[in-house]
Amino acid sequence: xxxxxxxxxxxxxxxxxxxxxxxxxxxxxxxxxxxxxxxxxxxxxxxxxxxxxxxxxxxxxxxxxxxxxxxxxxxxxxxxxxxxxxxxxxxxxxxxxxxxxxxxxxxxxxxxxxxxxxxxxxxxxxxxxxxxxxxxxxxxxxxxxxxxxxxxxxxxxxxxxxxxxxxxxxxxxxxxxxxxxxxxxxxxxxxxxxxxxxxxxxxxxxxxxxxxxxxxxxxxxxxxxxxxxxxxxxxxxxxxxxxxxxxxxxxxxxxxxxxxxxxxxxxxxxxxxxxxxxxxxxxxxxxxxxxxxxxxxxxxxxxxxxxxxxxxxxxxxxxxxxxxxxxxxxxxxxxxxxxxxxxxxxxxxxxxxxxxxxxxxxxxxxxxxxxxxxxxxxxxxxxxxxxxxxxxxxxxxxxxxxxxxxxxxxxxxxxxxxxxxxxxxxxxxxxxxxxxxxxxxxxxxxxxxxxxxxxxxxxxxxxxxxxxxxxxxxxxxxxxxxxxxxxxxxxxxxxxxxxxxxx
Length: 503
Description:
Growth Hormone, Chain: A, 74% helix
């Protein structure tokens, strides 16, 4: 059954979709008197839909998002438990931190290649294959015997998991018409952006109760079940014929991006103006320049560069990256401000910072209504403004700040990203061809990751560079850097073409 047919599937028990055609595709009969044949697998799916009372589209969306959550949740699970893992593997926190850094780099960098492969060879195979790889290396992670083996296994697991986000977005954009996309993309944004935050918050109690090895062993069967259900439920997407995979473009984009992200990530430790940092960054720039030259000559480029001459591609991506700069930078800075600057206990901090992912999770599902009411452009602007004010409020936190004030500042950040991200993602999806949805999503994933890594590195760097002015004051300067980034994101969001409102 093709995905186009599944998009028109009958939502048997969904009153809002009574105008959809049958969920069962009949094979075209050779003659008038011949009986059409119903494949048994489709009939089984129809019976299951009728029995469960969930439409095929909703079931597909649920499976896609559930699998993406399973993978994304694990990326940051160990952020607060690095010492526990380091002690268990007879290593140091500095070394084990690469079990977070390397998977984050892989998650952002490998995605474009998987997105392109999905567009060429079908997103079903890429989705299931990526999920299978993530599950296999989750088992390997649980059995890791030392720090290097664990870092390698976590990186390979994240690299496999990076295939899920672009594939899921490609399915969503095929299942839903442009006017319907914002709401499901809100759920997608919640999962891709919210799951890592939930992983950080939930990491400490889960690791303390079950142990970090058990958690990764629990991830593996979830991935396996997801593979089976996804292979059975997902329809095949169309495959582009007579198109070659751009190997040179994929390798140069991946290597260049890794080098840039590595320089940004390790800048605070190495020194931003050290020979090592500058050499790695310069080499990354050279490789990316080579990538641009390759793409200009390629008959089937990895990344169509003309996209970035389109306002509703370039500016939404830029606004998301700039807003994510502030969002993730604040994610790193605020807990340090509360612990080092104000002397809050770990439990006290945990209860406060949960405000941001909580508000994000509440707002993201309703962001579709906001975007349809005010237009995607205005939703992007509103979201970036909320993040900017969040940074400004948090920059004023001192010893006299109340818990309510801090929680409100954090909540504004979660609300802002929850409103902006689905709207800008919908703008991007509606601005490229259906055949390029996978790679478009992957590019968005990569640039968001670059924004996040850059935000964390720059804001931490600002704090360290201004610490002589006072610990609390240095954190304030760092948060003001986030406010500036999100202010630029406001202008980027306002530069997109206006979209119609649904009143």
